[in-house]
Amino acid sequence: MALSELYTKYNRVWIPDEEHVWKSAEILRDFKPGDDALQLQLEDGTEMLYSLDTSSPQLPHLRNPDILVGENDLTALSYLHEPAVLHNLRVRFVESKIIYTYCGIILVAVNPYKQLHIYGDAVIHAYSGQNMGDMDPHIFAVAEEAYKQMAR
């Protein structure tokens, strides 16, 4: 698939932003090699031209489809790059109050800076004997997997 086929009208991208680090925008006109700008519309409705260097265009990162937003494993994302990771973690933590996310076999944790009631005996027993990935990401899932591998 040619790069220009990905940067078509209605697809969404991430553009750098001084205040929010990354902003989402929708492409308003298909990109063609040689174009010096992408015509975009920000989420607030503002239209803008995103300038490109025609000698070697540095196209913005593509945004994942909405169906993948909030995935519990970052490796399930179509596009795995800084803005996609940060957005997914923000959606899981800020909107869903979930501090754990997998990235393959790695557990990513966002510090909530407060006590959470996700570490009691009931939770320990729930993860006991389960395979990693069968339940939501949790430190107990990683511990159970380590224990099973050690015992094997």
Structure description:
Keywords: Actin-binding, ATP-binding, Motor protein, Myosin, Nucleotide-binding. This is Myosin motor domain-containing protein. Residues 69-152 form the Myosin motor domain. With 152 residues, the chain is an alpha+beta fold. The chain folds into two domains: 3-62, SH3 type barrels, CATH 2.30.30; 66-151, no CATH class. 25% of the residues lie in helices and 22% in strands. The chain has helices spanning 3-6, 82-95, 121-127, 139-151, and strands at residues 12-17, 21-27, 37-42, 47-51, 61-62, 100-103, 106-109. It has a five-stranded antiparallel β-sheet, with no helix packed on it. A two-stranded antiparallel sheet has the order 6-7. A hairpin with a 4-residue loop joins strand 3 (37-42) and strand 4. The termini are far apart. The model has no long low-confidence stretch (mean pLDDT 93).
Task: Provide the fold topology.
Layout: H1 3-6, E1 12-17, E2 21-27, E3 37-42, E4 47-51, E5 61-62, H2 82-95, E6 100-103, E7 106-109, H3 121-127, H4 139-151
Antiparallel strand pairs: 1-2, 1-5, 2-3, 3-4, 6-7
> How many angstroms separate the termini?
44 Å
How much helicity do the residues have? Answer: 25-40%
- Sheet having the most strands: 5 strands, antiparallel
Number of helices: 4
Strands, total number: 7
| Anisotropy-based shape | elongated
Residues in β-strands, percent: 15-25%
Strand numbers in spatial order across the main sheet: 4-3-2-1-5
Write down the domain tally. 2
Class of secondary structure makeup = alpha+beta
Low-confidence stretches: none
Computed over alpha carbons, the radius of gyration is 20 Å
What order do the SSEs take from the amino end to the carboxyl end, as H and E?
A: HEEEEEHEEHH
The overall pLDDT, averaged over residues, is: 93
